[in-house]
Amino acid sequence: MIVAVIGKGGVGKTTIASLILRRLLESGETPVLAIDADPSNCLGHALGISTGRTLADLREELRDGADRPLSMSSSEWFALQAEEAMVENAGFDLLTMGRPEGKGCYCFVNNLIRDHLDRLARSYRHVLVDCEAGLEHLSRRTSGRPDVLVCVANRSRMAAETVRRSLDLYRDLHGSPPPRADLVLNQCGAGQTASVSAPFRQVLLVPQDPQIAELDSTGASLLNLSPASPAVAALAAWEVRG
Ligand SMILES: Nc1ncnc2c1ncn2[C@@H]1O[C@H](COP(=O)(O)OP(=O)(O)OP(=O)(O)O)[C@@H](O)[C@H]1O
Ligand SMILES: [Mg+2]
User: What's the DSSP call for residue 131?
Assistant: First the structure.
């Protein structure tokens, strides 16, 4: 599956992506390629991993005439460097996309990135993408066609509106709705309820979790959340099969 975690800024995409990664790892659904597609590079922090070069760094280097052997094509150079930029972990690898492009034409390099990701994705059981806020990522189509959209929202109307527009955009881009969309209502209060209705397969209520706040403040990995964490318990219901 390609799982893309989307939603308005600050609703908890990176947190939920980390919890989904944890769920996949615990279920033995490995190896996973985790892609941080948010320019502010937060997934590495949430997972307690220090990241190195980003694909955006490679893109800039290539544009500036990267120092590569004459015998090597730019796509070969890119594949090799991207391999090195990946951070390997138990059960998953992390790839960080970095900032979006600056001025000028990046079509050639962006196509390299897309081709590389398409090829790379085939070596993993699942690809999990922590998207940037809003709709940019879906419209730039750097991550293939997601099989599962995990739409994260909170109680704000704007967050719900972003989810609605993302689903519309997906349909416009791909000609059909996503094969599966789940709704995660994050930072819910006690006693809040929700029922599943179209177009969502699952609706999960994730409570405000003091353990997450604790790990966030110390910079420790969200993969270290204890099984007793209410957010982990909420994500245990997330279906790992497409
Ligand atoms: N269920 C939760 N319980 C406690 N804290 C949470 C929870 N979900 C998110 N947070 C906290 O809320 C803040 C924002 O969450 P997060 O970074 O995951 O959002 P985001 O949607 O990825 O933001 P951005 O759009 O900036 O990438 C973080 O400090 C995170 O620790
Ligand atoms: Mg984030």
Answer: P
**Tens digits of per-residue pLDDT, 127-170?**
999 988 876 666 655 556 889 999 999 989 999 999 999 999 99
Ligand 1 near 12 CB (within 6 A)? yes
Domain boundaries defined on the chain: 2-235
Secondary structure element (H or E) that encloses residue 206, with its range: strand 202-207
Whole-angstrom distance, CA of residue 155 vs CA of residue 157: 7
- Residue 75, classed as helix, strand or coil, is helix
pTM of the model: 0.93
- Other CB atoms within a 10 A radius of the CB of residue 131 amount to 28
Whole-angstrom distance, CA of residue 46 vs CA of residue 21: 11
Q: Which of 5, 6, 15, 222 is the pocket-test mutation for ligand 1 (most atoms within 8 Å of CB)?
A: 15
Beta carbon of 13 within 6 Å of any ligand 1 atom: yes
Which CATH code for domain 2-235? 3.40.50.300
Among 27, 32, 34, which Cα is nearest to 126's?
32
Question: Rounded CA gap, 140 and 106, in Å?
Answer: 12
**From 8, 14, 40, mutation site for ligand 1 pocket: most ligand atoms within 8 A of C-beta:** 14
Q: How far apart are CA 107 and CA 110, in angstroms?
A: 5
CA distance readout (Å), 239 to 24, 153, 191: 9, 19, 23
174-186 pLDDT per residue, tens: 899 999 999 999 9
